[in-house]
Design brief:
This protein is of the alpha/beta class. It contains 19 helices and 20 strands. A hairpin with a 2-residue loop joins strand 10 and strand 11. Helix 11 crosses helix 12 and helix 12 packs across helix 13.
Length: about 550
Amino acid sequence: MREIRILFTGIGRRVELMQAFHNAAATLNKKVIIYGADMATTAPALAYCDHIRIVCGMKGEEYIPQLLDICQKDSIDLVIPTIDTDLKLLANNKERFEEVGTRVLISAPDMISICRDKNRTSQFFIDCGLKAPMPCNDYKKYNSGFPAFIKPKDGSSSLNAYRIEDAEELAFYAHIIDGYIIQPFITGKEYTVDIFCDFDGKPVSIVPRERVAVRSGEVLKTKICLDETIIEQTKSIVKRFKPCGPMTVQLIKDSRTGDNYYIEINPRYGGGAPLSMRAGARSAETVLKLLDGEKIEYLNMKSIADGAVYSRFDQCVCTNYGSAGKSVQGVIFDLDDTLYSEKDYIRSGFKAVAEYLGDIEYAKDLWTFFEAGEPAVDKLLEKIGQTGKKAECLNIYREHTPEIKLCPCVCEMLSVLKESGIKIGIITDGRLSGQRRKIVALGLDSIADDIIITDELGGVQFRKPNDISFRIMQNRWHTPFENLIYVGDNPVKDFQAPRQLGMRTLFFNNADGLYSAMAEDYEIFGDRVENTEELGKYLLNLV
């Protein structure tokens, strides 16, 4: 299955958007790797990404070079911006990203410029044949009556935006807001229209929703409202703008006249865009289909849940565990390269294959091929002219009784944890029979309180970072997530689920492990130890 790699920039609080793309990947059965870029490790949405990339601020000279370097090194297929300040930069550098093989889900630079200047935005709406409250840039010349509305001409998120009741108040705010515009205040219902177009600007979905409750420019409660007039008017905007990917348009339906006054365009995913996805406009799925070259038609609006109401809520992600040391009641371990050396298992399997083929020296050849990053069994069988025995060799490797042992200090550590009343669990991915044989060979079946091999839950789709196994173990133990700690060695997949669930995490940076080269991806998954001696000291200190 081809990997689709997507980099989100300025990821911040966009947890819902990350969840939407993970859900889209699961629904379409596509392998999607999500990278999140931000300048702070405390950005909560990073916990919902497969990889984390820390970059400088968007105004820094190195910002675009850093993104280009990430795209080239990580073979990124698509960059998706999430905040306004990123749009013009990415639009102006779109061709540079294409040179390294990365698309950017961004509209044309001239269209981005229109959106960043409220004067030009209003004129754009007028040019589309729509109504818009025309702005004034000099409070002394404003004569459109009160109440009025003043805000920065290039602002966003309702920052420094105020309702003005009279000329005296207008003069006050005009002196404290740089680069302002003044517009007549339109009273009525506010709407956001979530639009998604393909790479050529052809509309795929247009979903209006009423902004029932708003906080600091971000919608808290919304109602899907498939108003035919709004949809048709918005099509005129799309035809002229030709957006690439997502765009949101905001308008107010005048309570006196019923006319629609258009006030803002944001050519990116709006904060509430995942709500339209939940209603049926699954633009995250559309992105994945487009990247795989599928042709997308305009969405049948009958599939949209017209009238559906969505309310949003805040949720926390811990980015620093502080001093809550003694609260741990259970330790859940990964298996491979955490409690034993996976390379020992591989050597053991190669020995079994060599014995089957009649020459123990073949084990050395298999190991040489493995270290070179080549398919060891295939290369050996090709070398000795027995390619017809591949199925038998693979079966012997997978079903052999492994000659492995727990890493140094692990037995003592597990014993002390048990004696201290700490529950011990194991959550591991892999083929059922092979993982069970490892567990028995290591004697863990008589030590651990609970063991889950994720494949036994129903297939590979339940492997980490899927959180089901963690939820099951927590439910069996009746222990709060915050009183559990997960220990693993793979910075790519081990920590995403426990972190989202509120568990502590401990990264075992196994220098001899198969995933040691990925240690550079480790950023905010919890504390870190370098060997089993440190691992034991860390865990025993908690009890």
